[in-house]
Amino acid sequence: MPHRSDKRDFIALMALVSDLDIEFVDGVNGSLIHPRSLPAYWKGDALPGDYGCWRAHMNVYQMMLRERIQSALVMEDDADWDVLLKAQLTEVARGTRFLQDVKGATHSPYGDNWNVISLGHSGLNNKFTSDQKYWVTPNDPTVIAPRRQRWSRKPDLSAPALGGDFTRVVHEVSRMTGLGAYGISLKGAARVLFDQSIMPNAQSIDVAVSQLCRYDHWNQAFCLGAYPMVFGHYRAIGPVDKDSDRRATNYDADVAPPPVRQRLEPESTLLVYPASINIPRFLKNEHIIPALYPKWDMLPEIDLETFVFPKGRGVFVLSTEYAGREEMQHVQQVQEPQTETTEELQTDTTKKPQVDTTKEPQIGMTEEDAASAGAAHRQDRGGATYQGELPVDQNESE
């Protein structure tokens, strides 16, 4: 939201230490949308915060169409990411290009035949009933430990080629929960805008995109995704009711808001080496980054000056290779949409976290609803093309 200068301050700091070019797109107060501009048909709850969040994403898509932006990374304004984000996205791009059989030049580094890439979700499903390709990166230290993966929606990775406690895969997505951060192509932006603004399908934007992933109306896999997620969530010190502007606009004026709990330490979820918690280290020119949970995560710390990011490989998996196929089919048939809550991890900004090893952390199980469409990071405009090998982070091996 334009009035949340506090969130923009923090995102600007994270973008600086991560060497990212960020563009802010104003969120929308749903209660101020003119009645004639509201969708003629709406599925689900029709609250001001839901309308505002939906409209803010539509505005991003409209901007992409007007300016012919070939692909963008859209983030909610509470998004957090790993200090190795550039290396992670390079590997994701290798994966999406492999899935699309990219051989030559493309307008987007992720290829040209995709719509949405789910990167900041709270769980997703793969298409385990089909023979398909995956991009597999084993021994990735930015994958959170299995005991921290406490969300409910998970893909079937029982095929031998997809195994490993610290493996990240890029694959076709059938359904997902949450839309905290995602890539979207120009073609994908046009299709979502048409589906939501022109057709009578308008609904909460995360549900809308998940439905497009599920049904593949455009004769191709509508959604690709990285699992586990690449983006997480950040929660600042202070009143917890400041986390979400979408929820704030949903309160009834005649009903007192719930009591406000204070957060005494900043929190980051779903990540191993979050940029948010490590801003002080970057400002001190430190290069040793500790893991949030060093006893559980793959590497207790990394040295940014010497670390080499692992390189993935493409594999082909037959539908008969999934050990849990019958069970997963049953789950997908009966599972209802989840309303999930978040109990997040508390961290210290000045020293390595002290871990209580007597219990497991309750990691974020859903996206935090935010009114702002967040920061749109432009990947490419109309004229540029990418040829041959992808841009590689300076710490990544060839």
TrEMBL record:
<protein>
    <submittedName>
        <fullName>Glycosyltransferase family 25 protein</fullName>
    </submittedName>
</protein>
<feature type="compositionally biased region" description="Low complexity">
    <location>
        <begin position="330"/>
        <end position="340"/>
    </location>
</feature>
<dbReference type="GO" id="GO:0016740">
    <property type="term" value="F:transferase activity"/>
</dbReference>
<feature type="compositionally biased region" description="Basic and acidic residues">
    <location>
        <begin position="349"/>
        <end position="359"/>
    </location>
</feature>
<keyword id="KW-0808">Transferase</keyword>
<dbReference type="InterPro" id="IPR002654">
    <property type="entry name" value="Glyco_trans_25"/>
</dbReference>
<feature type="region of interest" description="Disordered">
    <location>
        <begin position="329"/>
        <end position="398"/>
    </location>
</feature>
